[in-house]
Design a protein that fits this description.
- Chain B: Keywords: Cell membrane, Membrane, Transmembrane, Transmembrane helix, Transport.
- Chain B: One of its GO terms (cellular component) is plasma membrane.
- The complex is a heterodimer of chains A (about 300) and B (about 270).
- Chain A contains 13 helices and two strands, in the order H-E-E-H-H-H-H-H-H-H-H-H-H-H-H.
- Chain B is mainly alpha-helical.
- In chain B, helix 1 packs across helix 13, helix 4 packs across helix 7 and helix 12 packs antiparallel against helix 13.
- The two termini of chain B are about 40 Å apart.
- The chains are: A mainly alpha (about 300), B mainly alpha (about 270).
Chain lengths: ~300, ~270
């Protein structure tokens, strides 16, 4: 009896050790490259520090909330915040609606289903740099798009070079390139809805439209919430497209300056690293608040256990 | 009759979006095969198409080197993630150890922090370590992923325990169970991770553009951006570069696409 107890406790100790061995690579890597830097970034956001300084981070001058206050006085940062918000407000809803429609299409019994799934998803696996360059070719003043629009009598535009059109052009590009991801996730959600529910609705005399409205949509709520959160977070972090299209300077006239692009420039071109960290934490706060608001609005369907 | 018209309209929509979706690629491929003098020509003169832009980029510019860097970095990072994320995900799903709950809560909390927040200190750290502009710097900080661990945990929670229990009775250790029984069962989830990690890393631009400072260490996206910056008038060559960057990830996706869609459903990614 006692020996059995001993074995059991040995097994339990073994389990505890094994558990930590299994998570060890992740724990070390996260401490060194994420949690540690996160703390340092937070401290730096209250300091004036440049990479080129002779002194260390710890010796750098403490400036309190100055970096945060300056950010909201900085016209370029405010512009970046506005651009990013507009970008997000434009991209998220259009993206999700198109993604849902495409998911419904490739979930229905059309011919060549696999082909269309793949075709709609391909832009998503393509590098944003490649996509940006490709679109600049198609959107250039004497490019394919303007030639196509000319058929309808629309005059040519300099899409990425025009202060009013540059951001919307990037938005169109972003929608085009990431719709596939949300489509696939919607598709997985659609396939999870039990067939019997549709049969029951059909027996009750619900037509296709009513089935969609009363069965599909309510049951897709968790999927929709997931997509909404991922899409919002993703759009607030937009960088690649804005960087490539504007050659890294957010032009013309800061019309494509985004928060992350500005963070990159202040941190690594102007070497105002304390200021850059403050911008990073403002971005974090925005994303955090948005996520909380959505959780409130969409309820607690998202359960992890 | 009305139903037929509806069907035609439906297929027009389906095919129309497919054209919007892959049209830009087709147009870019064709242009990349043209000589520079033809790039603004809408008509395609098939006798003038050739692969000479690709040969030119390969021989006169470091595209081969960038390709090698991209492949090496993406493979190391992807396999590191597959191994470490599934180990951590497995422990969080199955093993009882002290601090497990706190660790999981930390993962959920950290997942909300955008990666750019740690950009400045991580860059300073990598500079101090002398890892900027090295393969170490491009790979080691990215070997695990919070989101990847989360997905693996959800997957392991969804598969039955019985096989593992009988293996444990047979005296297999945790590591034996993990490598011999659990990982083979996890193939759909691992395929999904493989595609997400490989294409994500292959396409990654922000970090490599910070960490690769000389053109010898560029990955393809960084290289293409710099090439575009200098040779933007030569669209035929630039677009050949676009294709060199995009085709490998498209091929990887085409190979695994069947399992990928299944994998997303089983990992419970949508929740």
């Amino acid at each position: 009896m006692s020996s059995k107890k001993g074995t059991l406790s040995r097994v339990k100790t073994r389990e505890k050790i094994d558990g930590w061995l299994f998570v060890m690579p992740f724990v070390i890597s996260t401490l060194v490259f994420f949690a540690g830097p996160l703390v340092v970034a937070f401290i730096l956001s209250f300091k004036e520090y440049s990479f080129l300084d002779q002194n260390t981070i710890w010796q750098a001058k403490w400036v309190g909330f100055d970096n945060y206050i300056n950010a909201f006085k900085d016209p370029i940062f405010k512009r970046a915040l506005l651009n990013t918000t507009l970008y997000s407000l434009g991209v998220v809803p259009i993206q999700l609606v198109i993604a849902l429609i495409l998911a419904l299409i490739v979930d229905s019994d059309i011919k060549g289903k696999t082909f269309f799934r793949v075709a709609y998803y391909i832009p998503t696996v393509t590098s944003t740099v490649a996509v940006s360059v490709m679109f600049m070719f198609i959107f250039k003043t004497d490019g394919l798009l303007n030639k196509f629009l000319k058929l309808f009598g629309i005059p040519p535009y300099n899409w990425f070079g025009d202060v009013r059109l540059a951001l919307p052009s990037i938005m169109g590009m972003a929608i085009w390139s990431s719709v596939g991801l949300y489509m696939i996730i919607f598709l997985a959600g659609l396939q999870d809805i039990p067939h019997s529910l549709y049969e029951a609705a059909w027996i009750d005399g619900a037509n296709k439209w009513q089935q969609f409205w009363y069965v599909t949509l309510p049951l897709l709520r968790p999927t929709f919430f997931f997509n909404l959160v991922v899409s919002l977070i993703g759009t607030f972090q937009v960088f690649d497209q804005a960087y490539v299209v504007s050659g890294g300077n957010g032009g013309p006239l800061n019309s494509t300056m985004t928060v992350v692009l500005y963070l990159y420039r202040t941190g690594f071109r102007d070497f105002k690293m304390g200021y850059a960290c403050a911008i990073a934490f403002i971005l974090f706060a925005i994303i955090f608040i948005l996520t909380l608001i959505q959780k409130k609005l969409f309820g607690e369907e998202t359960q992890y256990q | 009759m009305g139903k037929r018209i509806l069907k035609v309209l439906f297929y027009l929509l389906v095919i129309g979006y497919a054209i919007i979706s892959i049209g830009p690629f087709l147009w870019s491929v064709i242009t990349s095969l043209k000589p520079t003098s033809e790039i603004n020509n809408l008509a395609i003169d098939f006798s003038k198409l050739s692969f000479k832009n690709y040969v030119f980029l390969w021989k006169k510019f470091p595209f081969a080197r960038w390709m090698f860097n991209s492949i090496w970095v993406a493979l190391v990072v992807t396999f590191g993630n597959l191994l470490f994320n599934s180990m951590a995900g497995y422990a969080l799903a199955r093993i009882e150890f002290p601090g497990k709950k706190a660790l999981f809560l930390a993962i959920l909390a950290f997942m909300m922090v955008p990666g750019q927040v740690v950009m400045v200190p991580t860059f300073i750290l990598l500079t101090k370590l002398g890892w900027v502009n090295t393969y170490k710097g491009l790979t080691i900080p990215f070997l695990t992923s919070l989101f990847g661990i989360f997905l693996m945990r959800q997957f392991f929670l969804s598969i039955p325990k019985s096989l593992e229990e009988s293996a444990m009775i047979d005296g297999l250790s945790r590591f034996g169970i993990f490598f011999r029984i659990v990982l083979p069962l996890a193939r759909p989830a691992l395929t999904t991770q493989f595609i997400l990690m490989f294409t994500g890393n292959w396409n990654s631009f922000l970090w490599p553009s910070l960490l690769a400072t000389s053109d010898k260490m560029y990955t393809l996206p960084v290289g293409l951006n710099s090439f575009y910056g200098q040779y933007f008038q030569f669209w035929d060559q630039v677009l050949a570069g676009v294709m060199i960057l995009s085709i490998p990830s498209i091929i990887i996706f085409l190979i695994f696409q069947k399992n990928f869609i299944k994998g997303i459903a089983t990992t419970g990614m949508k929740e």
